[in-house]
Every structure is written in C-alpha cells, then in structure tokens.
Amino acid sequence: MKKNIVYVVILLILGAVFFIPGLKDKLQETLFPIAAIEKAVHISPEDYDIDLKGINTASTNLKNFKDKPMFLNFWGTWCPPCRKEWPSIQKLYNGRKGHVNFVLIAMNDEEDAVRKFLKENNYDVPVYIAQSPISEKILPKAFPTTFLLDKNGRIIIKEDAARDWNAKSVHQFIDNIIN
C-alpha cells in the first residue's frame, strides 16, 4: 500500500513538471545551472568592437580579450557601490589574472579622477575609458554592472549591483568555465 502511494506521488510530480508551463525550465535552471549556460546570451564579434583608452594599462580594443573568459565591469568613481566592491575585485584579479581577462570600464568619469582613485587605493586591475559606442547588449542601465563572459562570448553572469567578487562561489564558477 505504501509503495503505491509513493508511485502515485512520483507520477503527480512528473505530471506537474511536464504540464505546468515554466515549471520544467525553472527546475532545470535551479538543479542544473549548465542548462542556463547553454541558453545564455551571446556577445557577437561586432559587440566586442569597442576602442578602449587605457588608464593604468595600454590602450586596446575589447575584441583583443576574446581569447579567454572575461570579467567585464562598468563602474565610476562617483558611484558608492562601485567603490565598495573594488577591494573584492582587486583580490579576485590578484588570484585569477592569468586565467581571466579583467576589463573595468569607467563610465561618465574624468580620467584624472580615475587615476587618482586607482593611485590612492593601490589598485592595479586594468581600467579603461570607452572611446567608441558600447553595444546595447552590454551597455549598463545601473552601476556597477559586471559581466562574466566565457571565451565563446556567452554571458555567464550578469550582476547589476555591488557584490563580493572574491567569494568562494565566484572562484568556483570561474574554475568551471576555464576548464
């Protein structure tokens, strides 16, 4: 009798998964995050074509960073949450700069203010100011905005708020995409 009840409950759960719209996708994203990665938004080669003026590094173009995963952050010295997350970004950079390209783009900021901020805080994460238009796919609506892109241009993480970027979970996530 108990066996029959267990089978009925299992059948009801499976029926709900297949017949309730969206439940299957929600469960799949929750239980199998790789499925979410497979459906991730891709950044096209044209979206990478952004001329970058280096502040504490050489000037370049964003498309030159497509060889490995990228930590792409949009921030400003005028933004308190941006300033708050900087120490964790610096720590992440110190531990992962050989495996991930770091591109931090100062937005709506004066070059002198950015240089002063970096110098006062001894930050050496590569910082740039965009010199050409930024694609709508990655143009931030809020600050800070951070993307973690895999080497194929898939947006793996998009965060529209300050975060502890040196957390163990972030390091584990990076381990998964660099292997």
TrEMBL record:
It is found in: Cell envelope. Residues 34-179 form the Thioredoxin domain. GO terms for biological process: cytochrome complex assembly. GO terms for cellular component: cell envelope. It comes from the Bacteria. SUPFAM superfamilies: Thioredoxin-like (SSF52833). PROSITE patterns: THIOREDOXIN_1 (PS00194), THIOREDOXIN_2 (PS51352). Pfam families: Redoxin. The chain crosses the membrane at residues 6-23. Its main location: other. GO terms for molecular function: isomerase activity; oxidoreductase activity. Keywords: Cytochrome c-type biogenesis, Isomerase, Membrane, Redox-active center, Transmembrane, Transmembrane helix. This is Alkyl hydroperoxide reductase. The lineage of its organism: Bacteria, Pseudomonadati, Bacteroidota, Flavobacteriia, Flavobacteriales.
